[in-house]
Design brief:
By secondary structure, this protein is of the alpha+beta class. Helix content is 41%, strand content 21%. It is built from 19 helices and 22 strands. The strands form 4 sheets. Strands 3, 4, 5, 8, 13, 14, 15, 16, 17 and 18 form a 10-stranded mixed beta sheet that branches. Strands 1, 2, 9, 10, 11, 12, 19 and 20 form an 8-stranded mixed beta sheet that branches. The chain has a two-stranded antiparallel ribbon with strand order 6-7. β21 and β22 form a beta hairpin. The chain starts with a helix and ends in a 10-residue tail after the last helix. GO terms for molecular function: glycerol-3-phosphate dehydrogenase (quinone) activity.
Length: 616
């Protein structure tokens, strides 16, 4: 009898297992078919996005009886990622951003894709499994980002200097643990290097700090990216996948159903034209970063704040402070913080701070933050770190979040939270750049569940390359240099044909991926081959390309997000500004009044980027 029961139980278990396996196979097949369809749509478009006018027409076309499935508020990394994720599932999705894609925190990061060495240290010493899970998860996502945007991302070795033999053992063991946690996703094994080898690799590294001799370095690898270029790529890929994405479109109020009180849409103002319109949606996703509390209070005026803003300042110095392919981490400053010194786009990026701040659209670094960064790195370098060398500096606001569903609000989360504030509104906040994709997937999962939506496919963004990655390879810059020339106009009005040099070709390849061919073609065919400013690889053709195919609508959009001139060299950005406005005016049909307005807005924007403290 018992044997019969056991056999019956085994048979039932086998049936359940078979059904589960079949279900999983169906899910995988469904997700795979969704991925292939999205890829096919992107490739067949040749990377040409719908125009902004088309997007405005589509978003104005929503009705009460034909709403979008999802309306995303916020065009930063998480918002753009959420729109792409929803589109990859076959959902009807729209995204609105009051300024530009990546205009806030997402363009003001430390440019790292990392698991978090500091979080691993806390996890070990505090026996904190939650922190350990954060590191595991972030390392997985780090590799996905690099895989899906290989032209914008790279592997960056980073040195940890050791000034005692205890530090050598301590950091070596800690970074070997980091390797272990990364598992098969490891980028490169961490290694110890002697003093002589370390100074060969990093010539400006100090041999002595605070009276202590350098004993060597431990080098580990993480990822580095151009944050706003990646964000723009996400928004444009979303548009190619079927999402309606609209920058410079601000939510001014939320629409509620008169009977149920549920949020059913938003009143949106096109900040370029002043026109207002309603957007109807089954679920709204609040991905407004530091400003998500403002959106939540549109739905419920008494909602308590969940954002605890933190300021992160950065300083940009000339490229001679660091080698081109190796960074440096100052593992512990005088007040216990960590500071990075990293090569980035031909310059040196140093930061960051972590200070309480107030929320503002255009945060500025304070003099004491800049002085702290310069002081922190000066002891680790054998050259004078001069205030007069500051090319640019900026501050970003980290939207650290307190989960409103947790009673203990004393602990601020470095992870992200997804919260349903009221029917129809799902908020996501917290997290970091590295995990934007999984954050987007989580919030769309929540939106699907909350709104009882019916996606055609599962999320496929884990393996979905962004625009520019299709057909890209590391040697693409060679093909650009060999196949294209650029036509430039001299001061006396003559048109000259000159080569696209290696520096320009590498820049175009890493900024635009396979879309660089289109930029090079404009430079060659439309006499837009001049540099915008001396000392930088940016071409006039990029202004025209970005206006036509990356929703570049203002001069600030170009100098701040489509290129990184403002972040790399604020004075150079000011010098390039007149020509940028001139080309955009030709593309957009601006009159003199609009051109003057663009000039004033751009100068106000650039004034928030500090150069030498003595200049301010």
């Amino acid at each position: 009898m018992r044997r019969g029961v056991i056999l019956a139980s085994s048979t039932a278990a086998a049936i359940v297992a078979a059904k589960l396996a079949l279900y999983e196979d169906n899910v995988l097949a469904r997700d795979r078919s969704g991925l292939e369809l999205v890829k096919e749509r992107i490739v067949s478009s040749s990377g040409i996005v719908p125009s902004r006018d088309e997007q405005v027409s589509k978003i104005c076309g929503s009705r009460v009886d034909k709403p979008f499935d999802v309306l995303v508020i916020g065009g930063g990394a998480t918002g753009a990622g959420a729109a792409l994720d929803a589109a990859s599932r076959g959902l009807r999705v729209a995204l609105v951003e009051r300024d530009d894609f990546s205009s806030g925190t997402s363009s003001r990061s430390t440019k790292l894709l990392h698991g978090g060495v500091r979080y691993l240290e806390k996890a070990v010493f505090n026996l904190d499994y939650g922190q350990l899970k954060l590191v595991f998860h972030a390392l997985d996502e780090r590799n996905r980002v690099i895989q899906n945007a290989p032209h914008i991302c790279r592997v960056l070795p980073t040195m940890t200097p050791c000034f005692s033999w205890f530090e050598v053992v301590y950091y070596w063991a800690g970074l070997k643990a980091y390797d272990l946690v990364a598992g098969s996703g490891i980028l490169q094994l961490s290694k110890y290097y002697s003093v002589s080898k370390a100074t060969d690799m990093f010539p400006t590294l100090a041999n002595e700090c605070d009276g202590r001799k350098l004993r060597g370095v431990v080098v580990y690898c993480d990822g580095q990216m151009d944050d706003s270029r990646l964000n723009i790529g996400l928004a444009c890929t979303g548009a190619l996948a079927g999402a309606v994405v609209l920058n410079h479109a601000e939510v001014v109020s939320l629409r509620k159903d008169a009977d149920s009180g549920s949020i059913v849409g938003a009143r949106v103002r096109d900040n370029l034209t002043g026109k207002e319109f309603d957007v109807h949606a089954k679920v709204l996703v609040n991905a407004a970063g530091p400003f998500c509390d403002s959106v939540r209070k549109m739905a419920n005026g008494s909602a308590t704040n969940i954002i605890c803003p933190s300021s992160g300042a950065h300083v940009v110095l000339p490229g001679y402070y660091t080698p081109e392919n190796v960074g440096l981490i100052v593992p512990k400053t005088k007040d216990g913080r960590v500071v990075f010194v990293l090569p980035w786009l031909g310059k040196t990026l140093a930061g960051t701070t972590d200070s309480n701040t107030t929320i503002t659209p255009l945060p500025q670094p304070h003099d004491d933050e800049i002085e702290f960064i310069l002081s922190a790195i000066s002891g680790y370098l054998n050259v004078e770190v001069r205030d007069s060398d500051i090319l640019s500096s900026w501050s970003g606001i980290r939207p650290l979040a307190i989960d409103p569903s947790v009673k203990d609000t004393a602990s601020i989360s470095r992870d992200h939270i997804v919260h349903v504030d009221c029917p129809g509104l799902v908020t996501i906040s917290g997290g970091k750049w590295t995990t934007y994709r999984s954050m987007a997937e989580d919030v769309i999962d929540a939106a699907v569940k909350h709104g009882k939506l019916s996606p055609l496919y599962g999320s496929s963004t884990a393996n979905l390359p962004i625009m520019g990655a299709y057909g890209w390879e590391p040697s693409l810059f060679v093909k650009l240099a060999q196949s294209y020339a650029r036509k430039k106009t001299t001061k006396d009005g003559r048109v000259e044909t000159v080569a696209i040099d290696t520096t320009m070709a590498k820049h175009l390849s890493t900024a635009y991926g396979s879309m660089a061919y289109k930029v090079a073609s404009i430079a060659q065919e439309e006499n837009l081959g001049n540099r915008l400013v001396r000392g930088h690889p940016y071409l006039e053709a990029e202004v025209a390309y970005c206006a036509r195919n990356e929703y570049c609508e203002t001069a600030v959009d170009f100098i701040g997000r489509r290129t990184r001139l403002a972040f790399l060299d604020a004075k150079a950005a000011g010098l390039a500004l007149p020509r940028v406005i001139q080309i955009l005016a030709a593309e957009r049909g601006w009159d003199e009044e609009r051109c003057e307005k663009e000039n004033q807005n751009a100068k106000a924007y650039l004034s928030t980027f500090r150069t030498s403290i003595a200049d301010n």
